Amino acid sequence: MGKVKETRRKKSKLRQHAESLAFTILLALLLRSFVVQAFRIPSGSMEDTLLVGDFLLAEKLSYGPLIPFTGVRLPGLREPRPGDIIIFKFPRNPHKDFIKRVIAVGGQVV
Fold first, then answer.
1. Is the pTM of this model over 0.85?
2. CATH number of 47's domain
């Protein structure tokens, strides 16, 4: 009986590195889009708690991540509650992130 030779070609080192890099970039984009994102405090409006220039890591699953380039929000795990710190786009300038503390929700009086 003849031996069956394995005809697998080895990938070049360059291709292996390129595939690893592509996978790493894809994983980072997915994590940033759906799981966690870093933010920097731009103003002093939260100074009793957060200082200008502080960095935050915000997890996105609680309130529902936004699908990039679609404007569609996935369902979240819960609704915001008083005391939570939330990050949202300023309606008049959607390129600016606002970082604020929730003081009341629907049905509550401030």
1. no
2. 2.10.109.10
